[in-house]
Fold each of these.
Amino acid sequence: MLVWMLRKVMAERDIWSGAALARLLKEKAGYDISPPSISALLNGQPKQMKADTLDALCTALECTPNDLWVHTHPNVKALN
């Protein structure tokens, strides 16, 4: 099972709001994202994601996809 860890990665970098994430995406990755899209990323586990979005998140947050997703056994819950 994949667990979405965006909020944890953001907290580790002192990013506490969707607006701050959107600004960071624009500044560091040149990536524009709508408020509803930011909200969807923050409020639930994505069922799908564009490669461009994942690339921008990794660039802006200086992380890898392995930081944003954690694979666990289906019967074990990861801590968010």
Amino acid sequence: MGGVGHAADEGAPGGAAHGDGPGGGGEEVRRLRAEVAELRAQLAERPPVRLVRAHPNWPRVRRALAALLVALAGFGLVASVVGVWGARTMVNTDRWVATVAPLPGHPEVNTALATYITDQVFTNTDVQGRITDALPPKAAFLAGPLSNTVHDYLRGRVQEFMSTEQFQDLWEQANRSAHARIIAIIKGESQTVSAQDGVVTLNMLPIINNVLVTVSRELPTLFGKQLALPTVTSGQIPPDLQAKVQQALGVTLPADFGHITIYHHGDLTGFQDMVLAFKKGLALLVGGTLLCLVLALVVSPGRRRTVLQFGVATAVSVVVLSAAMRAVQGRILEHLPEGVYKQAASVAVHEIFSSLRTRGDWLLWSGVAVAVLAYLVGPGRLPRALRRHTASGARTLASAARTTATGERPRQQAARHLDTLRIAGVAVAALVALLFASWTAFLVILLVLSAYELGVTLFARLAGTG
């Protein structure tokens, strides 16, 4: 009996351990499963075993490589914008004509063109000699003052003609013809002029012809007769127009009469190679910029830092290329003598590159904004403090706005002065519109004003329904 009782006592714990009890085995299984799950989680969190141990300087190499790639990407972005602008503005004839069409509206360009046309007529028709021959010998001393008076009168008539739609049509046609000829020579498609002996000019003869027609009607004695010249409209320029002008004036005109040289053969050969390489490399430049930026983000151990570097690289590239463009503009103008022609050329160059400067400003401030945002989301002490204060201020403003919106008195004040608030909104919008003279800014201001007027009206109506 005693042996049997002892055996039963020894078997009791064993039976409990193997699940013979009413629930002890289930708890043990759950405990073991929990341990297995915990071990698996720890194993999953462990870094993978590297067969080849990384070099201790590898993170530094990655940072340096990412910095180099992102610098190339920033410069490539700015260069791509310049390249696309050049392809759209400098090589496309329609865009070029649209760019130079408003130039005569600038006082400096207007004065230079009027002076050139007037000097062409005076120099080649000997107006002062005609006046001297028409005066008696004792009044010959009046030839100079009278010539100056006629010169000023003729320049005034030229400037009046330059304000007409007829001049605008002739001006655009002259620029279109000259630009198309330049592009044909650059591409090697010109059948009449080669890049070795080509001189491209802006043909002002139709404008001079029409001015002569107008002046001969008003001052028929200036040329001894009324000139029988055709009025050239915006259609095709007569091929024998210079011969007709020469015959009507009774003088021999030089071959370049009324032609402004805008492209000389000495520049065409090098420029031709540059433009062809430029057109072929533009797609590679844009693609290479995107590739450098993607590779920089992939290689970089800290992408936030890389984004910040990209913003800085973009802003610096804008500054560097802007300085280079100013140097190019200076080279264009340095060979011109001081006076009205250099002033006009300076204004023309400034206006032609104005759209490129606008794009440069956008890139500059975009790069600065990207760099600042990347810095503000960083782990530094100052960014953390700024984020903390900004969040606190936002919560305070939101609380104040809720208090104002739910208060009865503010709604009553708005309802009482609703017309004043509406007029004030329109007045502020008008003042802002004067500062930003563009259609985009006007549209944004109009949308903001509409939202303001709607919000004020709805807020005031709550006073009547509250």
Amino acid sequence: MTKKRYRFATFNLLNFAAPPYSFYQLHERYDDTQWQTKSQFITGLVQHIDADVIVFQEVFSPSTLQSLCEDLGLEHFITVDIPSPDVVYPTVLFRPVVALASKLPIKSFTPLEPCSELLEYLNNQHQFKFNRTPIKCSFDIPQFGLLTCYAVHFKSQRVHSMAHMLDEHSQDDPLLELLHETVGTLQSQISRSLEASIIYYDALKTQREKQAATLVMGDFNDQLDSPALSFMTQTFPLTLNASVFESVGLFDSYEFANNAQLVKPASHYYQGEGNVLDYILCSKEFNPNRAKPCVKELKYLSFDAHLDPKKQREDICYSDHAAIAIEITL
């Protein structure tokens, strides 16, 4: 009997670096007890999510994650990049990657390459590089059709130090702090927005050329209504020819969920304040309210039992993000 329900999920693992590897700094690593706790937590949660396709962020040890996923029936596993080792201490890793695991056969996959013409248009053709290379892959789902998935992890809100520009080595310098809060924050927003622009452009172009449904899943490191990202779900003006644009576009899947609440659950807490940083954007094919819907029902699921709003510091044995998923019924 053909399966009628499918789940798609995203989960930021928080520094998934198997011993003896460290993340970012030599002392930032798991001891055996911490790693056992971390592995059991992720195994249990991924099993509980029971996704057909799940994307991961902050992966420093892809082969370890692949083995974990295969044991849970997610036999198809892909990455398109590798973490970078420190030149002096090779067990210290930088630039974690995104990964995708699936129970469904993957039709094709590739690292997303930005369109050179788009970069030229944005006057950024020489400098651009994704902070984490996105995965673009496709599936052919029975009774649903072609699906293009993007696994993403946008630029964080962390500001790169400008101390070298002032020839200032003290991070406590008042001018440096002011610059970080203004120019540094803006640079971070621009970088995140540029990454989102490239994903958005490719998704809409692929929708038109392939007539494929679309999912963009991952850690956006910002709220969707922020100036840096709000264009991704921009409604086209009514003055435009509706027949031309009805086949393309992205929407927050939460808007289509029959179980959506008035307030969307936070997927991350910082100093007690909750924010939604993780998203699953979808194309019109996931809207159960269309005249001739492909999907009869869509549910939005948040797996956040491990999050404690009162905690002021992250616990590396778990994750500082909720996992989120959508379940569709065909």
Amino acid sequence: MKKPLVAAFFALAIAGAGAAPAVAAPVEAKPAASTSGIGTSPTAQPAGAVKAGAAQAESPTLKAVTLAGTVALSNCSGSVVRFPNSLDTAPALVLTNGHCLEAGFPEPGEVVVNQASSRTFGLLNSAGTRVATLRASKIAYGTMTDTDAAIYQLTSSYATIRNSYGISALTVQDTHPTAGTAITVASGYWKRLYNCNIDGFVYRIKEGDWTWKDSVRYTSACQTIGGTSGSPVVDQATGKVVAVNNTGNESGQSCTVNNPCEVDANGAVTVRRGINYAQQTYQFAACFTTGNQLNLNASGCVVPKP
């Protein structure tokens, strides 16, 4: 996790995918002037990253993936998302990390449900230009237990956003992704696209006090940095969201904050310095109605409950 703490601004060595997880940026930092969570200058071009607008010319595989529909938070990235059965008239949703919540990191075992929020999000178009400010009405769901995800409900519907700004929501895939899939991590905070593949899936990731299940491990090309926490992980072939970016091992330590470790089914621990991770999102499709109301008792809804 990249710590979204002011102290991280001075440390220059905080994780870059959502730190508590590893990549949240300092809360008051601005993309053009702040340091990243993992010590990379915000003007530098990390491996696997391309600036918005340049991606199409440099990498034909990215034609279906742009920054359209991503959002910038005060300390993280996110995206406007819908589920396959969401109605156009339903209040839109924003997906980010649980460790990006404005109240700070949820404790292990804590699940936030239907909590009032007026948080704002900067909506980006395909070129990374901010075209609108969207506002939340509540945190529909947020946790760092088993996964690291938060879903905000907005005051605007999908139809309103599309008709007003020409931006459509990204669709969350409702099935488990596949190893080897070409993906793009699209950061609204940094207005950058990171391109790599799903290297595999991790039985458990442990970082500090938190444990996440069946996490996505990237190939080494996705060198996500502080502020990319909450970025949608998009399947390049379908354009659908398959995960939410959240952490990476910064310095090679084992199972500490900003240095997650992998734990297999037998308890064996593996540390992969410089490798970054995401949490799958397909599970959430079964937990929301067509009107985007959370129903944790719905058939097939297996996410942690309060």
